[in-house]
Amino acid sequence: MTRRRRLDLSSALARGEFVPYFQPLVDLRTGQLRGCEVLARWVHPTKGLVLPDDFIPFSEETGLIGALCESVLSQAFKTCAELGAPFTLSVNISPIQFRDCSLPERISRLAEEHQFPLGQLKIEITESALLENLVDAQCIAAKLKLLGMKLSLDDFGTGYSSLAHLQALPFDELKIDKSFVSSMCCRRESMKIVAAVVGLGRSLGLTTVGEGVEEVAQADMLRHLGCEVGQGWLYGRPMPKEALTAMLGVERPALSGLVGTSSEPDYNFPSFLEALPGARHAQLQAIYDGSPVGLCFIDRNLRYVSINQRLAQMNGISAKAHLGRTVYEMVPAIADVIAPYLTRALGGEAINGVELERRDHSSRAKSATMLTTYQPARDENDDVIGVSVTVVDISDRKATERALAESEDHFRHMVELNPQIPYTMDPYGLILDMSPRWVELTGLGFEETRGRGWLRAVHPEDASGVVNVCLTAIRAGEPIDVEFRVLGCDQVWHWMRSRAAPRKDRAGVIIRWYGSVELIDDQKRAQEQLWASQMRLQSIIDTLPVGVVIAEAPSGRIVSRNPKAESILRQDPMEFEEIGDYSKRVAYHRNGHKLESDDFPLARAIQQGEVTDAEHVYYTLGSGSGKWLSLTGAPLKDKDGKIVGAVATIQEITDETSTIC
Q1: What is the full DSSP assignment across 277-328?
Q2: Pairwise CA distance, residues 392 & 167, whole Å
Q3: What distances in angstroms separate CA 175 from CA 102, 129, 178, 185, 206, one per listed residue?
Q4: Model pLDDT, residue 418
Q5: In 10 A of CB 378, how many CB atoms?
């Protein structure tokens, strides 16, 4: 069944049946469009429009979720480019995809192809994506943020440990689950949860989004609670790209309680946001006491009015001991640092994202990094009566950021000190990144080098050959190894050698090429000098008055001879491939015995490593005639004394009077 499902999904992907639908995200205060969430739909040839619940689980099960997401996201980016007015897109990433460390780079590549700014992309993740491997999730999240994308925690409040995740990853947005929004106008409990989540989001400096808004009353209540963005059928159902243009010109439903109007919504129960401050405080205290985020309320005299258990634990003092005492008494090590922020908040200024280093009371060593916010609290007369303080321990996140920065710094130093020039290519052989050393060598900047721009520096005689070698290797998925010349800043052509190998995913599909280019001018000069030396030696050998034959060891194959040897032997010595072939030419000792292959001086020099004395033999020429020759042999050895070949000299004996006995 899984195989059939995979085949169905693969075929649908190939036919382009998965398309993006767009659902509006609307500013609750102004009614203006903030952006759209991208939702996948399957336009089935026989079943019609298939919703995600009927194919997303199968795509995750069959391992096609990544390809499906990339296809839909690519189409969404393309649609924005065609509209000519890019706006914010939100896309939900599967927990399975959030285990893939290459996810940020693949999204970045898709956005670059369609010139979609990553600053306008929000990645939505559910809490289940964080449960299996929080460390990997933190690393991926850091890369996404580094590329400019924003993070949104989807379905907030329904997971196992939502609040703990808020301090683990650098979220920008909270999405309140539609189960709370849909019932908030009729159930007090749902309304309280939504109010608490919105308050927590504001205290952490996060945007809050209400999902599942279907009625104006729900939108009004969300706005009154401070929620910023709404999403749901009230503003529009998910729609294909063809409907986007018309949707952009539609005026959103007017809210009954927009900013600046005098009326306020009636929710049919008197205790909206609680009638008595004491009751409201008690409820919030109960909610906050279970929060892993540190929370407290400071009055105008900088005294603690309330504090939750988490912040008390951070301070190392019980919650009860804080009450009625000042920050100078309870946290003297950081009181002078936080007091100015508290004073500004008491003046009506909301302050977000202040990082503090918490130190041990007994030492000056850093012990933790805290992210703090300071929000002024007002009474019914709009007077500031105190400050709501949020404290989140981000030590793990900062440690991860520092480790990542150190790793990048080490890598940068390694690249700068490396005499080679590292580079990366996409699966199709287009340059994605190149070491700055390439700029130093060729003068071509990064933008000029990207893609196939680097070929501008390659010698015209080498360019086509280099391209053919690379494309052949890329198609076969084999390593690349090619030599070519490039024009340096010194206007000199330099010899380079480029080598690269593919990186594949679990399915064996190439996702990147990693390689390096090295300067080989010295090697080329050495080769040329060696070749010149060989030519000079060959010239000397060719002018010798005696025949010279050179063979390799241990086979005995003839590899070289001079013209004199050819003239004496009247045949091509290169036909001898091994020592056993020597006896093909008949020769006799003076005693009349025929020379076997091993008897020839050249063979003895190879096999025994000896320098032979001159030996007179009668060499037949195959036509009934022959001649007397003087043969000698000597081994050729390398620097370690190993025999690598042998050389033989051949002289005609014109005054030989001996006869064969």
Answers
A1: HHHHHHHHHHHHHT-SSEEEEEETTSBEEEE-HHHHHHHTS-HHHHBT-BHH
A2: 6
A3: 26, 15, 9, 18, 10
A4: 62
A5: 12
The 3-state DSSP class for residue 148 equals coil
- Looking only at the bridges linking them, the beta strands covering 547-552 and 558-561 are antiparallel
pLDDT (0 to 100) of residue 272:
37
> CA 574 to CA 559: how far, in whole Å?
6
**Joined tokens for residue 569:** 């032997």
- The active-site residue, picked from 37, 173, 211, 228, is 211
Domains of the chain: 23-39+86-248 (3.20.20.450), 278-397 (3.30.450.20), 418-519 (3.30.450.20), 542-652 (3.30.450.20)
Element (H, E) at 8: helix 2-14
The C-alpha angle 419, 420, 422, rounded to 5 degrees, equals 135
Nearest partner of 470 among 444, 498, 451, judged by Cα:
498
Distances (CA, A) of 324 to 303, 331, 557, 568: 6, 14, 101, 117
Residue 189 appears among annotated catalytic residues: no
Q: Exposure of 333 by Cβ count < 10 A (0-12 exposed, 13-18 middle, 19+ buried)?
A: middle
- Please compute the mean of the pLDDT values over residues 286-290 and round it to a whole number: 64
pTM beyond 0.85: no
Instruction: pLDDT band for 263, please (50, 70, 90 cuts).
Output: very low
At 479 the pLDDT is 95
3-state secondary structure 200-257: HHHHCCCEEEECCCCCHHHHHHHHHHCCCEECCCCCCCCECHHHHHHHHCCCCCCCCC
Residue 476's identity, in one-letter code, is A
SS3 content of the chain, % helix, strand, coil (to 5): 40, 25, 30
**Within 10 A of 57 (CB to CB), how many other CB atoms are there?**
13
Contacts 24+ apart (CB under 8 A), 651-657: 651/546, 651/547, 651/568, 652/568, 652/627, 652/628, 653/616, 653/627, 653/628, 653/629, 656/616, 656/628
> Is residue 357 classed exposed, middle or buried when 0-12, 13-18 and 19+ CB atoms within 10 A define those classes?
middle
Backbone torsions φ then ψ of 423, nearest 5 degrees = -155, 165
